[in-house]
């Protein structure tokens, strides 16, 4: 099979670039946000303006897309970021688009390609490498052979991540250290709160200030403004179970937070239809599992993570729900919280290719 490369960001490429994922995934695994992809290609996304994007598409002899990717270049950054990768199990097609991205990045003075990054750290990154039978809200979804295609094109793994799958807690699951930490912080004047619909905006801005500080050392991190953060995350107001968002204050300042979201599978991706909304409302009213994608603790308040894990344990037990502690960087302390509850894990990787 021969493949033809298209790289002109015109209506022809955009239409086929955007339609391609639907051919690859069954409906229950499709997590594409077509609106966001279109905005990025057109330069109208809330994050557009901070970077330049270059789409690449490989078409087969029959005129069907076979592979795609999007290269993102930030001014002053020695890395090029490649993401929105999709492909048939066709190494030649994958190599065509990834090599084109590498050449473009190299010609722009970049030293390496890193990915997968969907234009921004904030929009999604990493490949899933295990547990492909289930989709989790907020976690990457890709076909199992994608990392192998990247390795064929000269990429290697640089970072590993995992999500822990936790059973429903019971009275027998006791962590004396976590209990003591929670008790000590409560006695020391720390205030533990949940949010409400009316306080959501103010709390989200407080979370933004702490989260952007804590994540600044993460691979591929790019700072965004409070306005951009709000544009990306304000839709959470419609899907959160507010009792499962915990904020901890000390001296009136946010010291730690944890955000839990009912596991909606892929329902939060793409356009919101009346049918999807009904399904989401049913899940939010009677959840069976929670995803825990965000936890942050100000380093000046070490130990609050353990205290928050104790609070969550009681809530998950009361609600009779399993949970997924999502996308933990290998070696981080949060991977050890309530290990006794762990029943399995999903694995993820980040990859790079040197451009020398």
CATH fold node name of the largest domain: Aminopeptidase
Named at the architecture level, the CATH assignment of the largest domain is 3-Layer(aba) Sandwich
The number of strands is 13
Low-confidence stretches: none
> What can be said about the biggest beta sheet?
13 strands, mixed
Basic shape: globular
Order of helices and strands: EHHEEEHEEHEHEHHEEHEHEE
Describe the structure.
The protein is α+β, with helices and mostly antiparallel strands and 356 residues long. The chain has 2 domains: 3-125, Aminopeptidase, CATH 3.40.630.30; 165-352, Gcn5-related N-acetyltransferase (GNAT) (Aminopeptidase, 3-Layer(aba) Sandwich), CATH 3.40.630.30. Helix content is 31%, strand content 28%. The chain has 9 helices and 13 strands. Strands 1, 2, 3, 4, 5, 6, 7, 8, 9, 10, 11, 12 and 13 form a 13-stranded mixed sheet that branches.
Summarize the structure.
The protein has helices spanning 11-24, 34-42, 91-107, 146-152, 176-187, 200-214, 226-233, 274-285, 304-319, and strands at residues 3-6, 52-60, 65-73, 79-87, 112-115, 127-128, 156-166, 191-194, 245-250, 253-262, 289-297, 322-329, 342-354. With 356 residues, the chain is an alpha+beta fold. Strands 1, 2, 3, 4, 5, 6, 7, 8, 9, 10, 11, 12 and 13 form a 13-stranded mixed β-sheet that branches.
Question: What's the structural blueprint in terms of helices and strands?
Answer:
Blueprint: E1 3-6, H1 11-24, H2 34-42, E2 52-60, E3 65-73, E4 79-87, H3 91-107, E5 112-115, E6 127-128, H4 146-152, E7 156-166, H5 176-187, E8 191-194, H6 200-214, H7 226-233, E9 245-250, E10 253-262, H8 274-285, E11 289-297, H9 304-319, E12 322-329, E13 342-354
Parallel strand pairs: 4-5, 11-12
Antiparallel strand pairs: 1-2, 2-3, 3-4, 5-13, 6-13, 7-12, 7-13, 8-9, 9-10, 10-11
